[in-house]
Write a structure and sequence with these properties.
α3 links the parallel β4 and β5. The protein has 11 helices and 10 strands. It folds into 2 domains: 130 residues, 2-Layer Sandwich (Nucleotidyltransferase, domain 5), CATH 3.30.420; 162 residues, ATPase, nucleotide binding domain (Nucleotidyltransferase, domain 5). With 323 residues, the chain is of the alpha/beta class. It binds 5'-O-[(R)-(carboxyoxy)(hydroxy)phosphoryl]adenosine (KG4) and zinc ion. It comes from Thermodesulfobium narugense DSM 14796.
Length: 323
Amino acid sequence: MIVLGIETSCDDTGIAVVKDGSLICEVRSTQEEVHKKFGGVVPEVASREHFKTLLPLYEIIKEKFSEKIDVVAVTVGPGLPGSLSLGLCFAKTIALCENVKIVGVNHLEAHLLACLLEYRYPKFPTLGVIVSGGHTEIILWSGWGVYERIGWTVDDAIGEVIDKIGREMGISYPAGSEIERLSQSAKGEIKISRLKMEGYMMSFSGIKTAALREFRKISSKEDYPSFALGLQNSLFSSLSTKIEKVIEDYQIKEIVLGGGVAANGILRNKVEEICKKYGLGMMVPSPKFCADNAAMVAICGYDKTLRGISDDLSLDYRPDWKI
Ligand code: KG4
Ligand code: ZN
């Protein structure tokens, strides 16, 4: 089965082909440079960029791969309405012209299924942890296509906090990898308070405020690395506490990490330590598959098609679609 995946939920445009569950080719174009000057993603600008980029990317894919496709998989939510609608419109056009099936994909499910690009199916019950610029979610993944969202942030996502603090520090959007790089030369750590919240729910705006307070006390750029380390430790330790709680409550067998922030080495190490402590398996995609990409959409479309799920041309986009 050959699946063409399309991703346009935020500021990355991607198209990929998966054949019988293996990634064959993938192209993507990031809008980071365009949004940098605004300090974050401007929805209207993002839509226009997708509009400009989709067809050229599709032409590149057609040059690389000429076999007939069977299914078009497209992200239909959650995400920016304008961006989602452009990807969906493009996907419907391909489905019509090629006379193939279409399947709508949930972006968060795709982040979890990105693990299938490099690993195997996890052992259930699995704990899915999605950490990105728009989401921080804890998902109980208890069977093939069976997900339950059990914890999420009630305000800022972890990536959002990192990007906002990064802006204060004069780091351009998105700030995650630069903040991680800075922290690698830290000689100490500026401690930032951690999340104190019962249950699986999370809130990171308090950490953001505490971090800004600490940042304003800094008088020299020499302290930036220690600050960057303190910020990440605060955010990721808070998340780790929740992860441990779910492991203890649900007899979890494996952890799957996904989303742009999952590229972060400090977070990966913390989760690895937890897995060692509890004797669990761990799957984290390579950094390129943690960030938004179409390969994860194609593999998710493949998985859904195997499960007998498909849509028709009345498929609509769902900006607030929950997993
Ligand atoms: O999944 P993604 O590509 O897009 C969304 O769906 O949001 O995630 C982007 C987020 C940004 O907030 C970016 O700063 C963060 O991922 N990020 C990182 C790292 N690389 C990207 N955060 C921390 N450490 C990194 N190495
Ligand atoms: Zn994402």
